[in-house]
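yo

u said u wanted the structure for the complex thing, so here. seqs first:
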Amino acid sequence: MNIIPIEYYLVLSAFMFAVGITGVLIRKNAIVVFMCIELMLNSANLALVTFSSYLGNAAGQVFVFFVMTVAAAESAVGLAIIIAIFRNKLTVNIDEINIFKW
Amino acid sequence: MNALFYIASVVAIAATIMVITRLNSIHALLYLIVSLLSVAVIFFLLGAPFVAALEVIVYAGAIMVLFVFVVMMLNLGPQTVEQESRWFNPKIWIGPAALSAILIAEFIYVLISHGRQNLDTRMINPKQVGFSLFSTYLLGVELASMLLLAGIIGAYHLGRRKEAVFHRYFRRPDALYERLHPKEENKIDENGLKAGDKPLSKTNVSGMKQKKSERGEL
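structre next:
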């Protein structure tokens, strides 16, 4: 039924990961940087599900569940940090958030 | 079946590239949601309906709503878009993009040089996943619940509005300082009006006072 090579899924996953890395490196809006981190986690999920389907093992999908848990906790705390910084500095530009530097 | 995979992956790639190139953060967010949904379609085609449903509900539903709320609350406005467009020139993005392109080319080369292996999709139904989740990985589920609890407490603690105790670095004559220490003409009196404003009508103000007295009795 399905004759797509496993490499295609992995290449798609790697492409999304690379785009996520590029986004983290080039963007200056902290929220967009967070979105790119979510993209990278999501591409890792795609690779896990691919191998889970390839090996016929449910463990890969269990790990996707854990990755989603980590992503949810991370985004909740991270966005709270962004809001706290915005209250103090009135910006989310990561070039202006240099409060450790003086 | 195969065509569905190709369509979904083209949508995923296009939406993913749009995420990092849109200047307005809410546009990037909407493209991210499209990207997540197309990945959910690919999960479904891979025979993983549990993860596909989780992707739609948790990622595209819950986490993205969190992002929408934050973007909406910050309300950054058009000057931020203008700022982003000034930074977003090829001089900045060509370096990281080229290095990422080299890495992806290497990865594709490694995969292709090993010969192709067709994926005969094996359906893993939610029952199997649930059984694995609550037998082999039970401790992991417990730890995940503790992690989520820590996330809730951390988000509450960070997001709480505390007494305004500022480090000396932040104490400078800017908009923030003025907001915290309003000038005399911007101060709001007990009628909810600024000193310069005139009340709209007599009844309005008296109604307010009435309410205030009621509240005082309570």
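Chain A touches chain B through 75 residues (CB under 8 Å). Helices of chain A lie at 6-26, 30-55, 59-89.
cya
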